[in-house]
Amino acid sequence: MEMSPKEKNAPKRREIVQMILDNWHPERGEECIPLTESCGRVVSRDVAAVNTLPVVRSSAMDGIAVKSAAFADGQMPDTESWVYGEDYVRADTGDDFPDAFDAVIQIEQVEMLEKGIRLSVNPKEIVPGRCVRPSGSMVKAGELLLPAGSRITPYRLASLATGGVKEVRVAKKPVVTFLPTGSELIPAGQEPKRGENIESNSLMIREFVREWGGEIVCRPVIKDQMRDLEEALLSAVESSDIVLINGGSSKGSEDYSIPLIEEYGTLLQHYVASAPGRPMSVSLVRDKLVINVPGPTLAALAVSDWAVRLAISYFLREAAKPSDEIEVILEEKLMSPPFMEIYTRVIVTEREGVYYARPLGREARMEDGAGRCNGILVTELGRKGYQAGEKARVKLL
User: Fold this and answer.
1) CA pair distance 103, 124, nearest whole angstrom
2) What percent of the chain has pLDDT over 70?
3) Alpha carbon of 55 to those of 58, 97, 134, 332: distances in Å?
4) pLDDT in tens, 326-341
5) Which spans in 99-183 are helix H?
6) What is the largest CA-CA distance in the chain?
7) Predicted confidence band of residue 350 (pLDDT cuts 50, 70, 90)
8) Residue 1 above 60 pLDDT?
9) Helix, strand, or coil (residue 314)
């Protein structure tokens, strides 16, 4: 099918991302929630420590606490006559101990005798503060624990709890409404008859949106009727921050999304120089962001990955995250048109510390395409392809 000038001159993904940032100004909010319910949320304000730890001091390792003055002359005292509680005490990792003691000796250097102890340590090393963490060496009240825009991970959750945080201010989750369209679609779980297909994208998009920090509402399948889609779209923009229309953005006889958006809103861009998902669109309808996600599952995956995820992060004011890409060596030749970025599924394997990737064609069976595919390679604009043995960057799924 011959491409129109609009398709041939479609902007790059990053240019469409910039369109979203420049034109969409969502109404954001925040809420205060208990720390115990905050994992996965994005903090909307800096979070500072309340506690100072250790409060006074603590042992840096499992061992015994001793008086360094007993070793002041650099000679080993008669430790076999030492009395527990007077000359030494146990001080395991993180433990406080009586103020009379000021140094810790690792338990591996201590032999417990029937009376007293025997030490295998250089007495000159036993000085005040040895293996002792001073007050505030872990955290001090008022210290910044987590800057605004950070997502609370399980490890960060533990750190905030250690710092005495009980409640956090987090960004309100964007409400994302997913509108699947297509008269041929039936819900997952039903047996398809001739001419029917399974609507499975809502399951994928639902979990992506939740993972990225949004709240998802998946509507029932909308038949290919202009009035039905019109009612669903207008209802969705009233109750959502982001609306995803799945399907209906290409050149089919029942593709109504674009005319409908142009009637009620502002079409920022139709088509992108990236495939699959080329006929996607980005619009504003009553100041709400509307992304038309193409229907094929791989196209929906691609557009969700670079457009929907970006929109959710932007709404949450989430700080940029490091890339999760790895370098691979291609095992097979990969062809791609130079005028378009192509999302290519790959199977990544590791041999002797080196990663290899085998590209999958668009017609790959489910066994490979879904069952074994574990990475995405996005081809570079301007390149006609890659040769076997070349290096490339792959995003792990």
Assistant:
1) 12
2) 94
3) 8, 12, 9, 60
4) 999 999 999 988 888 9
5) 154-162
6) 96
7) very high
8) no
9) helix
pLDDT tens string 188-199: 999 999 999 999
Q: For residue 369, is pLDDT > 60?
A: no
Mean pLDDT value of segment 157-179: 97
Q: Is the pLDDT of residue 252 over 60?
A: no
Q: What share of the chain is helix, strand, coil (3-state, %, to 5)?
A: 25, 30, 45
- Produce one character per residue of 7-18: b if its CB has 16 or more CB atoms within 10 Å, e if not: beebeebeebbe
Strand, helix or coil for residue 310: helix
Asked if 346 contacts 397 with a C-beta cutoff of 8 angstroms, the reply is no
**Tokens 């969705």 — which residue?**
236
Q: Say which residue the tokens 């006889």 belong to.
A: 253
**Residue 270: strand, helix, or coil:** strand
pLDDT at 287 over 60: yes
Q: In sequence order, what are the residues at sequence separation of 6 or more whose Cβ sits closer than 8 angstroms to the Cβ of residue 68?
A: 102, 103, 126, 127, 128, 130
Q: Within a 10 A sphere around the Cβ of 381, how many other Cβ atoms?
A: 16
Q: Which helix (H) or strand (E) holds 293?
A: strand 288-293
Start-to-end CA distance of the chain, whole Å, equals: 32
Nearest 5 degrees, angle CA 300-CA 287-CA 18?
60
- pLDDT value for 5: 67
Label residue 315 left, alpha or beta by phi (over 0 means left) and psi (-120 to 50 means alpha). Answer: alpha
pLDDT at 255: 67
- Residue 330 and residue 94: Cα distance in Å, rounded? 49
Of 178, 227, 229, 230, which is closest to residue 199 (Cα–Cα)? 178
Distance CA 172, CA 215 (A): 10
Helical ranges in the chain per DSSP H: 5-8, 13-23, 154-162, 201-212, 226-239, 257-264, 297-303, 309-316, 366-369
